[in-house]
Amino acid sequence: MDVSEGVNTQVSSRAPKVSIRGLSKIFGEGPGATVALQNIDLDIGEHTFITLVGASGCGKSTLLRIVAGLEYHSAGEVIANDKAVTGPGADRAMVFQQYSLFPWLTVMENIRFSRKLAANRGEFTSAEVEAASGRADTLLNLMGLRAAADAFPNQLSGGMQQRVAIARALMPRPQILLMDEPFGALDAQTREVMHDLIQYVFHLEKSTIVFVTHDVEEAIYLGQRVVVMAPRPGRIDSIYDVPLPAQRFQDMKLSPGFIGLKREIVERIRETSGMKTDLELLEKLCGQLKT
Amino acid sequence: MATPGNARPGFWSVRGPMSQRSYWVFAAIGLLAPLIAWWALAASGYVSKVFMPGPGQVLTRALAWFRSDNLTGDALISIYRVTAGWALSAVFALPIGLMIGTFRPVQALLEPLTDFIRYMPAVAFIPLVMLWIGIDESSKIAIIFIGTFFQMILMVAEDVRRVPAAQVEAAQTMGANRRELMELVLLQSAKPALLDTMRITMGWAWTYLVVAELVAANSGLGYSILKAQRFLHTDKIFGGIIIIGLIGLITDQLFRLAHRKAFPWMYRKA
């Protein structure tokens, strides 16, 4: 459990898949402008699973969206797949918290959407179309969606919908998978199942996954490294190595190492978020109640 | 008797449940009660027949209109005018609204202008329309167009803007370009809302019919109502209004049916 205070930002020894240098993001202009991200440096190695946690307003989602190319940055540079990020692209798939599925398409049509785009442009030979349909089948099975292939998204539970969203994102074989609180709207039991599923996907597809969450337990359970961000201005506060084997099991959440790390990160987030003052206030109030 | 379960919330609980049967009973009461009240008021002789003809009298007049005064012709020409004015609006409002809802510069360019024009009273355009277009069919269609077009633009733009950002962004991260985003995401996603907008604006188009048939018409439901006014044929006025209402109701139901047929995915739930 090494705590590297913003110094060692290299998250893998291999060549970085995503490289962020001196990144800043300012929302708005003039006196109303706020610094969402300030001077972010971060390298994410190939086939690594990193999670971003932090109090609300720390810019974790903004950072992810900048890597996705959905948000532009004010200064610095972002390199993904050896190319400077200038906009969204199929090499960086994104899974959103909710409402991202196309409700007018069936599950299968949703999954095949990226292929349809390519096919419409005439970028496909018939053999490739054939291969793509095999890929869609594989993903359908992998995500346990076989029986729901012809259903429409609003006929599915929240958990099933997120499985479709993940399958759809994986369809074009993206090298980088960006996930913005993908399980935030799911109940606790479904979330556990999804955790194991995404672990499996990570090992099977050898993807590089950047996963944003506000749930520290989720961040530790999934991540090889946990990047803790702090607000006002949004910045990387610290990076924690997760001392767990590559294969994770639900039992590990109860191990002393896991709990210790969780305590440390939760404490760190509290310290950086300004919630400390709320806690002090609470303690004061409790003290008054006792007297 | 079986032991009662928890008390089912009553009719008047906020957003409470209601059985299909009770719903139809209440709907029937809502429709029949005014009819009965109308009939009773007319039959009481309390109000002069000139002011308030009874349902029977109105029906007789409507039948006479149908048999010897070409009600069908009046209805058809009015349906034609309304539909033509409305369709012309749709042909232009759909692409313009899509552009406004998609591109901020187009929004800035056209939305304040449209907002300004839509407050102008369509009736006041009649002299101008007669001057510019003349007094033939196209002038009636033009009035209905003016009445619906600007509202329709704004509603279409709003429908397109309401497409969830996550849908657009998901498509972007799958490599969709601008045209694909408009064709395969924004338009597809907004379609059900657009059909609803078309249904609602069709209703508005009908409300402009009487105004449109002020312009040198010699046929049509609105024209017949206006003419009946001159001869104080209140029963015919009642008949004309009710017929317009019925045509509107039928059109509305057809649109709803089309909605159900066109977007089955909206009506299928887990």
Brief sketch in words of this structure:
Chain A has 291 residues and is an alpha/beta fold.
Radius of gyration of chain B: 24 Å
Oligomeric status: heterodimer
CATH architecture identity of chain B: Orthogonal Bundle
Poorly predicted spans of chain A: 1-8
Number of helices of chain A: 9
CATH 4th-level superfamily of chain B: MetI-like
Characterize the structure shown.
The complex is a heterodimer of chains A (291) and B (270). With 291 residues, chain A is of the alpha/beta class. Chain A has two domains: 3-91 and 176-290, Rossmann fold (3-Layer(aba) Sandwich), CATH 3.40.50; 102-173, no CATH class. Chain A has nine helices and eleven strands. Chain A has a seven-stranded mixed sheet, sandwiched between helices. A four-stranded antiparallel sheet of chain A has the order 3-2-5-6, covered by helices on one side. The model of chain B has no long low-confidence stretch (mean pLDDT 92). Chain B has one domain (66-267): MetI-like (MetI-like fold, Orthogonal Bundle), CATH 1.10.3720.10. Helix content of chain B is 76%, strand content 0%. Chain B has helices at residues 20-43, 55-68, 71-102, 104-118, 126-133, 137-161, 165-173, 178-207, 209-212, 221-230, 234-262, 264-267. Chains A and B meet through β7, α3 and α5 of A and α7 and α8 of B.
